[in-house]
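Dear Dr. K.,

Following up on our conversation at the group meeting, I've run the structure prediction for DYW domain-containing protein from Hibiscus sabdariffa. I'm pasting the input sequence below exactly as I used it, so you can double-check it against your construct before we proceed with anything downstream. Let me know if the numbering doesn't match what you have in your notebook.
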Amino acid sequence: MRERDPVSWSVMVGGFAKAGDLDNCFTTFRELIRCSAQPDNYTLPFVLRVCRDRMNLLMGSIVHGVVLKSGLCLDQFVCAALVDMYAKCRVIDDARKLFDDMPNKDLVTWTVMIDGYAECGNAKESLVLFDWMRDDGLVPDKITMVTVVNACAKLGAMQKARLIYDYICKMKFSLNVILGTAMIDMYAKCGSVDLAREVFDGMREKNVITWSVMIAAYGYHGQGKKALDLFPMMSSCGIMPNGITFVSLLYACSHAGLVDEGLELFNIMWDKYGVRPDVKHCTCMVDLLGRAGRLDEALKLIENMTVEKDDGLWSALLAACRIHKHVELAEWAAKSLLEIQPQNPGHYVLLSNIYANAGRWEDMAKIRNLMTKRNLKKIPGWTWIEVDNKIHQFSVGDKSHPLSKEIHGLLKSLIEKLELAGYVPDTNFVLHDVDEEVKVGMLYTHSEKLAISFGIIATPEGTPIRITKNLRVCGDCHTFIKFVSAITKRMIIVRDANRFHHFNEGACSCGDYW
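The predicted structure tokens came back this morning:
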């Protein structure tokens, strides 16, 4: 073409983006700018979506500069694309500033911002925005509701989950495959696998993802047998399993100690179903064998792998070494892990904890010093509890809550009752070289203990207490909660970073296999 107008450029940029040819999309956009052509509100959103999909913040910032020069900073389509790009690139504060400055926000923009907060780990703000959106007079569609349901799943807030479900029923949204599957995931991650199963059974249409999500739900609730029971049912409905299905099945076997069943599934997935094992399946197998103490077999599996090893695989091996106190193998796994992810503080913390458990305080100190040199900080532990549709958050030793005095008072009297019933604090979970008395004091103010104490104060007697923790619950807190469930006659449901624990009458659903 001798002459190219803005429409011609837009068609080329948008065409490459739609075709998935991201390199040519960028190249054509650069050529457009060099030719002094004026990008419009059709071209710019396409380029910004490419930046989003590649999580290319640098390019996204450059395109933002072009937006400002083009005078399109208040255009609704362009602004929505900018908010989406910054949110997906996890620069959530910049996304929020743009969002707040928009004079008119449509449903798409609200949905993008709600999803952005959930993806960045602030699902609480997602749900706040959802309420504001409705107060602003906007009626959500199914896409918005899927986003909100996913945010609620991340937060694990059961009361909010029930309100969202009631709203979906009120608005007469049909539970299609996407929304229904999201609802299954939400209820399961809010602690009720039974409600998840009700939604699952009530869905007219289910795809392979729906079945896989339900299998996974049973898995992280420790109900491995029920997860395996779904597999033949799925096949009888004519749904062929895929890689995600087998990840869910192997995960369920791992968390229920079903080693033989897991090995059988791993062996037939390629031969019978044509699903080639990838690194995620191998990671599940390392976790399965490692938890069961079969570290030699886990190591042999790693050595014979033909797929590229990733951080998840080495993390599974390192976690197994922590359980079985295998320090030498832990060092080898940690070395491989730190080569892949040198900036992840969790890996350093896990290795230092293994050293501490083995009484190797000098080695632990070296790891902690290395973290300091690399400016890495341990991820702080938080525990959330939902009471009266409000989220209350606690950290270790927290005294910021308005009822802090009552919470600590109840916790003190509770511990006294527990000790009379046979509870002995396990100071091995305080990984510092300090006096025993100091260790006990540290244990007594763990965030999950504070959240449960608040739950006892703030909820009716006999009702379940549900808490969510961002890290793995420690062994002492696990024992503590078992005693509390027996003494208070309360069911306590704990969701940690790995799985769910249902405590009732002094026992846990995990059978102490976690």
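Two things stood out to me. Residues 76 and 101 are 11 Å apart (CA to CA). The chain has a mean pLDDT of 90.

Best regards,
J.T.
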